């Protein structure tokens, strides 16, 4: 089920630019603004993990989907993609509509670590 709550995010602290977010494991998320996606390519694999988004209005994005190939699931790749997207939303002062179930879960697990959400009651119902 799509998560249609619109949230406003604001930075809690300084973050690295969303163009490149990384994990201690050396994986890096790259922001491909032209194709409106974040990608991670572990171990120089031919396949890459992808988080796709689209602009739905002025200063508003829909975080639509994440996909991590089975060969590198369980390594924090989807979390890395999600954090890169959250950083992008904060840095650009965007409103985010979250349609992807994984990103919704990522935010709900520890929302204060990642972002501050207005109208929290809307997000949890």
Automatic annotation (TrEMBL):
<comment type="similarity">
    <text>Belongs to the NATD1 family.</text>
</comment>
<feature type="domain" description="N-acetyltransferase">
    <location>
        <begin position="30"/>
        <end position="118"/>
    </location>
</feature>
<protein>
    <recommendedName>
        <fullName>Protein NATD1</fullName>
    </recommendedName>
</protein>
<dbReference type="InterPro" id="IPR031165">
    <property type="entry name" value="GNAT_YJDJ"/>
</dbReference>
<dbReference type="Pfam" id="PF14542">
    <property type="entry name" value="Acetyltransf_CG"/>
</dbReference>
<dbReference type="InterPro" id="IPR045057">
    <property type="entry name" value="Gcn5-rel_NAT"/>
</dbReference>
<dbReference type="InterPro" id="IPR016181">
    <property type="entry name" value="Acyl_CoA_acyltransferase"/>
</dbReference>
């Amino acid at each position: 089920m799509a998560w249609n709550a619109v949230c406003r995010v604001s930075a809690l602290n300084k973050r690295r630019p969303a163009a490149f977010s990384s994990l201690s494991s050396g994986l890096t998320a790259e922001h491909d603004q032209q194709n409106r996606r974040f990608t991670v390519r572990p171990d120089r694999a031919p396949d890459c993990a992808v988080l796709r988004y689209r602009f739905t209005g002025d200063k508003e994005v829909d975080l639509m989907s994440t996909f991590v190939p089975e060969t590198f699931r369980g390594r924090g790749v989807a979390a890395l993609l999600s954090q890169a997207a959250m950083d992008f939303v904060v840095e650009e002062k965007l409103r985010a509509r979250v349609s992807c179930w994984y990103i919704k879960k990522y935010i709900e697990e520890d929302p204060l670590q990642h972002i501050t959400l207005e109208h929290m009651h809307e997000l949890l119902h």
